[in-house]
Amino acid sequence: xxxxxxxxxxxxxxxxxxxxxxxxxxxxxxxxxxxxxxxxxxxxxxxxxxxxxxxxxxxxxxxxxxxxxxxxxxxxxxxxxxxxxxxxxxxxxxxxxxxxxxxxxxxxxxxxxxxxxxxxxxxxxxxxxxxxxxxxxxxxxxxxxxxxxxxxxxxxxxxxxxxxxxxxxxxxxxxxxxxxxxxxxxxxxxxxxxxxxxxxxxxxxxxxxxxxxxxxxxxxxxxxxxxxxxxx
Length: 232
Known about the structure:
The protein is of the alpha+beta class.
């Protein structure tokens, strides 16, 4: 049995166990609440039991409470587009807002027809809690992709150094949480030339700066021409 098939089997088994445990907690919680309401109340010598409508309401509230607890883990579906100049370092950081542990996460280029990144650029295995990183060889990103997050606290953080114009693409992660849930964050990267076009015998170095316009989001970037120039 291949490693991936074994991992899929383990994920399915763990999900089944987690589901069984969740329902057991629901039954326990509903039973406890029902007992507290099932005490009879005397009214003119008559006994009044909890109504069917109240019982259904208790069940729904209890199930909703468990569902809210189970859905704490969350990763954003999309990240803001990053615009940089050639030669820059790009950090693609996805953070679980509940700090949930993740079992594994793969990172790579995304084509809309694929659920997985294709090709993969990096694979992080965290079943043992050790963030074991494998950088996929044989791509144009050799030596430029690294992982610097921590899946134990929901930080799926990857870095690409010395980006090139041809690195302009959509990037995707596929991450599996400790609760057996899958997340597929996507980010678009735009890499612009780091030198202006030739004019009057010179090219000017271009730099990416944060746009400080009124109410601009922090990820807004504008490209400015610096004083550094070269002959062309």
